[in-house]
Every structure is written in C-alpha cells, then in structure tokens.
Amino acid sequence: MTGLPPIVAVFNHKGGVAKTTSAANIAACLAAFGLRVVLLDLDAQGNATAGFGVLPLPPAGAYDVLLGLSGIEPVLVATSYPGLLLLPATADLRMAELQLAAEEHSHLQLRNALERHGLAQWADVAVIDCPPSLGMVTANALTAASAVLIPARPDPFTHEGLVNTWHEIRRLRETVNPGLSVAGILLTMTTDDSTEADVARTMRAEFGENVYPTGIEADPKVVEATQLGVPVAVLDPDGGAGHAYAVTTAELLRRLTRTQPLPETTGLDAALNTLRDWRARLPALQRLPTGAEAWTAVAQAQDDAEPHGDWTPDRLSGPPAAAAFRPGMPGLAAAFLAGMLAGGVLVRVLL
Ligand SMILES: Nc1ncnc2c1ncn2[C@@H]1O[C@H](COP(=O)(O)OP(=O)(O)OP(=O)(O)O)[C@@H](O)[C@H]1O
Ligand SMILES: [Mg+2]
Question: Of 31, 71, 144, 314, whose Cβ has the fewest other Cβ atoms within 10 Å?
Fold first, then answer.
C-alpha cells in the first residue's frame, strides 16, 4: 500500500494522438461521476492547463512538485468544475528532463513527492497528461501511476508507437513499478475512412479487450471546445466526442476498480446529467478569454448568471483569465497495415 490514490497516466510515445484531450476530458468526467480528481499536467506545452482556460501558464506548478521545490497545495489550481483540481504545467517543465537526469533515483521523484505531500487529501483519483516522449518526466509519471491509458489513432502508423509504448511500460513494470497496470487502449479521432476502419479492426483483433469498446470519433466540437478552454464533455455532453468521453470514463472506472478500491461513484446517466448541468452553467463557469469574439454572447449571459464561487476552495488561488489557445488537427496518414500484423507477436509477448 502506498497511500496514493489510483493514478492514471495518459500516455502514448506518439505525438498528437489526443493524450491531452483525453486526460482533460476523462478528468472532468471523473469529477462528473462524483469523484475528487487532480489532473497533473506534466507536458511543458501546457495544453491540458490551457484547455481549462488557465493561460498564461502560472508561475509554479507540477515542475515545482516534481523537483521537490513545493508541496502540492500551494500550486494547485481550482477549475470551474466541482471536485476537479489542476496541478498546472509551467514553462519550467522544459528544464525538468535535464535536471531530473542529474538526480539520484530520478524516476521516483514524482511518486515520492505525491506520497510525501499526501495527494490523497485532494484526490480519490488522479490523471496525468504525459508529454509525447519517453524521457525522465514520462518515466516519473509512469512510476507514480497505478494504471496507464493509451490513446491511439487508428492510423496506419500507430503500431510502431504502440510497440514502443508497450516496451516502456514493460520495462518500468519489471524495474520500478510492478504495480503498473494497463487501463486500456482508447481509439481516438476515429472516422469512417475504410483504411482506418481496417486498422481499428486489426487493433481490436490484436489487443483484444484492451481496446475500449467505444472510441472517440473525430469531432469538430473538440477543436471548438479547446479554443474555448472547456472540455468537450462539458461543452457537448450529448455530442459524438463529448458523450464518448463520458462512456469511456465509465469503462475506465470499471477497469480501475478491478485492481484498486475507489469510492462509490454515480452512474453514467447521473454523470451525464452533471455534465449537462455544467454545460447549462457554462457562461458562469467559463474562464473567459477576454476579447474573444466567440464569447461575446457568453460574456453578456454571464451578467445574468448566478455566481458559483462557492465551488472554489479559498486556499486555492485562481489563475489569470484565459486567452484562446491553439487548435490544429493533424492529417491522416497513409496505409501501413502490414507493420501492425508483423509486430503482433511481439505485442502479445508484452501483454
Ligand atoms: N476527437 C477529436 N476530434 C477532432 N480533433 C481532435 C480530437 N481529439 C483531439 N483533437 C485535436 O487533435 C489535436 C491533438 O490533440 P491533443 O493535443 O490532445 O494530442 P496529444 O497527444 O496530447 O498531443 P501531444 O503529443 O502534442 O501532446 C488537438 O488540436 C486536438 O484539439
Ligand atoms: Mg498533449
């Protein structure tokens, strides 16, 4: 027993596969299921932090906890959603790789810090947004984590990334974190494209029930939500991606509770109702990007909306108002199914 709550690292060695989108939405959905959640943004890009409208990035955050410069409480940021707190990314995280390399037991820094500072005081469950690399920061995330969720686009180049990711997970399991389980593979940005459908079928055949039954479809609402600094599960809980993240979270909870105790949660219907309630209150909940045209109407509506400041614990200082942040959807890749099939044996060994 570590005294740590279940910690889900959202990781794929590959970039642009919706790690951040998934981490942010699953964290919000876990809160909608009634849990106390801390989302740790360990990516210097700060997209998960900005995705909650926290921009510019705060002066202190996950880096300071990771390097032992701060406790958790002074750098936690309240989000607008009850139960969900953010350990934000800061620009300093860029330096963490080199600095950690100089430390003894460098992979244990985060785990030790989360234990020492009592993460369980604020979190029934924590979610980590990992950077798209296999460096020291990711090693820390996967050493602190009890489970890893792997978002993967069903594009033809996915397989190599997945094999690297499995290798890293296996290596960490065998060395520093025998308790690390695989919480599953989540297909993201799925489309009706026939090549992608083939890849998705092959992945399901290869990885079996490790692949979540529901994928997250490519949905323009995700980009809209990102620009607005709101999780798509809140902006559009009944839409394609938004609803799928709520369903995915229910499935994640089911899998987590197989290995780790969690407090009782509400059911999916109640969680969806909570997300709809947050959606209805968005004008009041949104950290408004000042001057953004899209939010003119929202800003006006906010004047009439009830305040919800009571959701923000006094001791947590709010970040500055948000600015819009960059969207951008990677293009689809060309066919490469043969590699997936050829690597299948290796993956089976790793599982
Ligand atoms: N379901 C979706 N539909 C449409 N666009 C999406 C979807 N999921 C994510 N995106 C967009 O794809 C881009 C990449 O997503 P995201 O930043 O979550 O990936 P990532 O794996 O965290 O990237 P990185 O490796 O750079 O950290 C973002 O612009 C995001 O808004
Ligand atoms: Mg990311």
Answer: 314
